Amino acid sequence: MSKVCQLTGKRPITGNHVSHSNRKTKRRFEPNLQTKRYFIPEINKWVTLKLSTSAMRNINKIGLYEYLKYQKRKGFDVGVEL
Fold first, then answer.
1. 3-state class (DSSP) for residue 62
2. Can you list the residues of the chain whose pLDDT is less than 50?
3. pLDDT of residue 52
4. What are phi and psi of 43, to 5 degrees?
5. What is the pLDDT of residue 26?
6. What are the start-end ranges of the E strands in 1-82?
7. Angstrom distance (rounded) from CA 76 to CA 8
8. pTM for the complete prediction?
9. Taking CA 38 as the corner, what is the angle to CA 32 and CA 44, rounded to the nearest 5 degrees?
């Protein structure tokens, strides 16, 4: 299963575990992704999106339809016909 936010494009990044003795081993930082179902009244459709929690906060602030239009202007493939 892909660990990429559909709207922001956030994906896993790599870094190091650093022990008390300062020994370093590789690890992955996963984005906090949630699967959420939204209703868009402007186009009368339900959509299921895999979103990062930061994208969910932005949707709560400005609304889903406005956020989708904003992301489409920035060049992201939002997966919904607007």
1. helix
2. none
3. 95
4. -115, 5
5. 98
6. 13-18, 24-29, 33-40, 45-52
7. 8
8. 0.80
9. 155
